[in-house]
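quick one before i forget lol
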Amino acid sequence: MKNRLHPFFALTLCLAGSVGSAATPDHHAHWAYQGKAGASHWSELDQVNVACTLSKEQSPINIDTARAHKMPLAPLAFSYRAGTAQVSNNGHTIQITPEPGNVFKAGDESAELLQFHFHTPSEEKVDGKRYALVAHFVHKNAAAELSVVAVLFRVGKANLALAPIFASLPREGTQRALASFNPADVLPADHAYFKFRGSLTTPPCTDGVRWQVLREPVEISRAQLAAFRKLYRMNARPEQPLNGRVVEVSE
């Protein structure tokens, strides 16, 4: 018997093809990270992916900390809360879709968390270095603008917040429910961040996305990382040119 989704979960799954690494709509061409459907060919697969090649503000990027502009950036506030969530494997990554009501604020601007998902290795580089894993928290504001918060992971202790997810990762095309999960538990204690304008890192590579990459990484165990890589050995888009964009860093 199939589970019936909460309307919010159903909506975010429908939006998935345009917010990060979520499922590609059936009428769009299949894409991948390597081979003939890999990242270097995305714009050739479907005309809706033209930004993957033509846009000058694509993500991910390498963050050169020595060149980042120190700015009095607005503090980030995460009004996340415990609630039910759906864990799904959409064929490109593992995605967690929480119930409505999780709000992210950057100064006076606020947006609701739609979902978060993972890439290995990290798509973002810091001083040329990729981390073992990254989580992208995708938010949408009232004007339908997207804002992504990236949390970097290094190998170390087991991540207790992710334990209920990584202990039983769903197979491709399947999902399972979490009775109680708080996305805030995944975040580091320090919310200092890098800020820049970028794009979705998957087709259709839509630009105009606000990016905030948290400076403090969190830890994940080798066993947890191996569980993810058993499903997705590599699901990271290559570094994209900065093209004169300025990367800011909170003081």
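fyi Residues 65 and 127 are 6 Å apart (CA to CA).
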